[in-house]
Write a structure and sequence with these properties.
The complex is a heterodimer of chains A (about 90) and B (about 100). By secondary structure, chain A is mainly alpha-helical. Chain A has one domain. Chain A has three helices and no strands. Chain B contains three helices and no strands. In chain B, helix 1 packs antiparallel against helix 2 and helix 2 runs antiparallel to helix 3. The chains are: A mainly alpha (about 90), B mainly alpha (about 100).
């Protein structure tokens, strides 16, 4: 019988593996937009992994780190899409 | 394990499945727009399922509130970011992929 902690940590490890798969697209991606989308996916998977580790160890402070990481991840995409286009406004 | 714990494990496993779908789509799809489609929708669903599993697994009320806030935040910002990047790609004149003769993908 599996423990709940072990299952949550296994799912977190799976998300880390998917983030590594996304780094392949960061390496080969023909345009910069491909790379930014792949970095965004890797960051999202990192946030999920931090949340699952927080749930496995019952650590409330890890969730604050996950929230700040999600904010930075969003800011990366918005800043890139805003400043890569000449006319400025994207959203 | 109790039935609640089985439910948590089922939610987390479904989240891992959709995260894997997003990773496969990100590697296999042919251009920016299709990749952004895979990344935004599948990965958002996987994130929501996995963070919901974390919210149910956390014991204290403050932790659950924090993870529900994280879930709602990712549910809003992830598609917004993908939309912004795809629109920037469109404004820079990146062509969408189309089927042409002799391409058997």
């Amino acid at each position: 019988m599996v423990e709940l902690e072990t299952a949550l940590l296994a799912v977190a490890a799976a998300f880390v593996a998917f983030a590594v798969v996304a780094l392949y697209r960061v390496y080969v991606g023909p345009t910069t937009h491909d790379r930014v989308i792949a970095v965004n996916v890797a960051g999202t998977n990192t946030v999920i992994a931090i949340a699952l580790v927080a749930a496995a160890f019952q650590e409330s402070t890890f969730l604050d780190i996950a929230l700040v990481y999600a904010l930075l991840n969003f800011l990366l995409s918005i800043a890139f899409s805003k400043f890569s286009v000449e006319r400025g406004g994207v959203l | 394990m109790t039935p609640t714990e089985w439910g948590i494990v089922a939610l987390a496993a479904a989240g891992a499945f959709f995260g894997g779908v997003a990773a496969v789509g990100l590697v296999r799809f042919p251009d920016v727009y299709t990749r952004s489609h895979a990344a935004s929708k599948s990965d958002t669903l996987g994130a929501v399922l996995a963070v919901a599993a974390a919210a149910f697994a956390l014991q204290s009320g403050l932790s659950t509130a924090k993870s529900v806030f994280l879930l709602l935040f990712m549910f809003v910002t992830n598609p917004t970011a993908a939309h912004a990047v795809a629109r920037a790609a469109r404004d820079q004149g990146i062509e969408a992929w189309t089927v042409d003769e002799g391409d058997d993908r």
